[in-house]
Every structure is written in structure tokens, then in C-alpha cells.
Amino acid sequence: MSRRIIVPFGPQHPVLPEPIHLDLVLQDERVVEAIPSIGYIHRGLETLVAKREYPEYVYIAERTCGICSFIHGMTYCQGVEQVMNLEVPERALFLRTIWSEYSRMHSHLLWLGLFADAIGFENLFMASWRLRESVLDVLEETTGGRVIQGSCKVGGVRRDIPGETLERMVRDLEGFERDFKEIANVFLRDESIIARTRGVGVLSHGDAYHLGAVGPTARGSGVAIDLRKTGYAAYGKIHFKPVVETDGDCYARCAVRVKEVFSSIDIVRQAAAKIPEGEIEVKPKGNPNGESFSRAEQPRGELVHYVKGDGSRYLVRSRIRTPTLTNVPPLVKMLAGCELADVPVIVLSIDPCIGCMER
Amino acid sequence: MAFFEMAKTAILTTLKSPATRRYPAVSAKVTAISRGRVTIDPARCISCGMCMRKCPSGAICVVKDEKTWSVDRLKCVVCNCCVEVCPAHCLTMETGYSPSMTVHEGIEVVQITYVKPERPPQKGAEEKSGQGS
């Protein structure tokens, strides 16, 4: 029996966009155990809640993550609205839904590109990111920001999308869908991708459930958890099915994300067809006094914002539980028993967002 | 399962024009509402300090006595908050970004030139003074 050695993986590694450290205990080329350590980029954003007035904290909540920023802002706003019993206008809820889905598309395309890059498929990486640009252009045109939208506020949204812009967005989605189908075919059918991902990093249904996997990581293992089904924002008025795959390997997680882009396109179409006319915001009266949990589905999984106010302009506590944090225990489980060369692919398959995780 | 699934897309890409812009020659893509940088109209600023109080990153500093408004371009997160809260509407969000810098010279100080208009004499006061004489 060969000697065990420990190979450090990260915090700086070509495949990692952000720093996380894993100590890989190896026996020959096989990983016996992976020990994660985090805490490289903790910024203390939750403490800032006591130093910024609650309407201004939206900007900070949004900057928790550079990719799913809109959903962070929205979840925080939902939390404060729950505390203050604010009735958000219907149109604002639909606009939030539309922007959330555009965020999801851009996040998934970003991930697909990074995943292709981790596999070594440079061309596919560029093709994915080229498509992502078209999504970012729409976000910039409608909100003013490419990745930090800043269009959500307590009580509604800051900007409206005019009718003709919305129509054009829906028309443009046809071309986007056609282009994305080409890329999706490569991800789902290409021999080299299948050889690199199928059967790699398998997470069983039971493990996914018991270790608290969320988002595409859970859905790739057959756990049909999708927070959008709880009907926050305008999701209650939209028909869609959570995308579920049952294999639990890297290929399944990739397939979930590919199919979710199509599902997002469909949700945007439905939302654009059903969006009512009317106000886009209500003015909050008074200050939040009380506490609430607010949950939403990020591209990476379930996001929880906890807010607590004491009746002043400043909240007393904020807590953010991000999906990557709950996906780390399943990651450790996936890594045990894999080949060293597969580690980058497996780590990337949970879509790690470390900035988000450490806040 | 298929081989060369990417080939068609890859070959077509070589025939198409580049997806990126030749940046300095062609200007960057901006929209009417793109957030680039905050600018101030010093003739309209009433030095109320609202922008300073609401700025989430603490980038703005208003000194009432010296009549200066300053912004640290490296701290500013271009969130548009100051523009929204400004009661005098003297702040605007320009679409172009601040130029990049190699040394920390990001603090821009603007001298406020706003002059408080003289209050027109009140009618009641005039009458009162007339009565007194």
C-alpha cells in the first residue's frame, strides 16, 4: 500500500476564479479525502448593515456577489418588505422576475464558459461568453449596469422597462435561443465533454439531500428543490417545471444548467406576456421593526437573507446564507474517491462563488 | 454522443466579423442610462451634504465652510444613490467611465460656486416697516 500524501489545491489555482483552499489527501492518484478551508476574502458586509440606512444597504447587499447581484438585492428588499408589511406593486414583481431570469442566464453562461475552460475547450468557452455579452447588453440597457444592476429598491424597483423595449427583448430572445441551442448541443452531446464529465464526481440522491445540497447541484442528483416554486416575486403566476437530472455526476449538473437557460428564456417570455401596467414602487413609511427570513433561488441555489430591525433607520442584524456555503459539504463528498486530474472539473461543477460565500 | 459537434460553430465564427470591438478606434458601447461617473454642477449645489450622508461607500465629502465637494473615484461604486437623493438635482450620472489611473490621484475636489439668491423682501415685513415709520 502506497504512502498517503497531501496536495494543496488553491487558493490560487488556474481553474478557480476565487480563492478556496482544499487539502487533498492522495493515495497514488486517487483522492482519499478533501479538507476545505475558507476565509480568504471575508469582507464583513453583514456588519455594515448597522452603519448604513436600510434603503442604502440594498447597494451593499447587491455587491455581495458580482454575478447574482440582482437576486441578492431583491432578496434583501423582500426581507425588509416582509418586516414592514409593504405591498409591492404587481408590475414591480414581474420586472424583478424578468431581471432575475436574465441574471440567471448570464450566470449560467458564465459558468458554462468557465466549465468549458476547465475542461480545456477554449473555443466553447469563448462562444459561451460571446453569447453572455448579449444578455449583459440587455441588462445594461434596462438597468444601467452590466453586472451590478442596482435597479431594486425597498418597495419596488427603480426603473421601468417600456413596452416597446420589452417587446424587442422578447424578439431578441429568439435569436439568442437559436445561438444557444448550438452551444447547448455541444455541452450535451459532444464526445470530449461527455468523456470528461460523465461518471465523475457522483453525488447520490440521498447524499445530496442529507448534506444540504441546493440549486443545480441538488437538482443534478434528482432532488427537485427549486425555490422559485414557492412563488416569490411573480413566479407564482408563471408555469415552469424545475429542471431535474438523476445521474448526480458533473454531466448531470452541467445539463441542469444548460436546460435552465432554456427554462429562463421561457419564463421571461411568459412574464413579458403577463406583465400588468401600473406603478413600479410604493414609498415605505416608517422604519422596519421586527425580523424576517427571505429566501430566493439564485443561479447557484437557495439564498437566505435574514434581517432584523428595531424601529430605527438602521437595521440591527443581517445574515446572508449563500448557496455555495451549503454546497461545500456535498463537494467534499464528491471529491472523495476521485482522480486528482478530475478535481478541477468537480470543484467547478458546484459553481463555486467564494466572494458570495464569505461575504 | 457526437464528434465535432463544435466544428460548425467554430468554422462559422472564423467567417464572421469579430464579436469584440476594436476599442480605441471604435468607441465603447454605452446606453442612455449606463452608469459611468458622477459629475456635479457646482453652480447649483446647495452644500446640503445629502449625497455624503447617503453614499454607501463613503466616497463623497462635502465641506460646507470651505464650499467644496469632493469624490474619491477609487472609492465610488457608481451606484447612482447620490444622484437620486440630491434635492437640488445638481449631480448627474455620465455614461463614460473615469479614466484609469496609475497613482492614487482619485480624489477630485470641486469648488462650489452656488450663491444663495437674495430673498425678495417679504410683503408683510414691508408693511410692518412702513407702519413703523
Annotated CATH architecture of chain A: Orthogonal Bundle
The proportion of residues forming helix of chain B, as a percent range, comes to: 10-25%
Radius of gyration of chain B: 26 Å
Q: CA-to-CA gap between the ends of chain B?
A: 103 Å
Major interchain interface with per-chain residue totals:
A-B, 31 and 24 residues
Number of helices of chain B: 4
CATH class of the domain at 32-116 in chain B: Alpha Beta
CATH fold category name of chain A: Cytochrome-c3 Hydrogenase, chain B
| CATH homologous superfamily descriptor of chain A | Cytochrome-c3 Hydrogenase, chain B
Give structural notes.
The complex is a heterodimer of chains A (359) and B (133). By secondary structure, chain A is α+β, with helices and mostly antiparallel strands. Chain A has helices at residues 57-62, 69-84, 90-119, 122-143, 163-189, 191-197, 205-210, 215-219, 250-274, 323-335, 343-349, 354-358; strands spanning 4-9, 21-27, 30-37, 152-153, 156-157, 289-298, 301-310, 315-321. The termini of chain A are far apart. Chain B is an alpha+beta fold and 133 residues long. Chain B is 22% helix and 17% strand. Chain B has helices at residues 7-15, 50-54, 81-85, 123-132; strands at residues 37-40, 60-63, 68-72, 91-94, 107-111. In chain B, the strands form two sheets. A three-stranded antiparallel β-sheet of chain B has the order 2-3-5. Chain B has a two-stranded antiparallel ribbon with strand order 1-4. The longest helix of chain B has 10 residues, at 123-132. Chain B is elongated, with a radius of gyration of 26 Å.
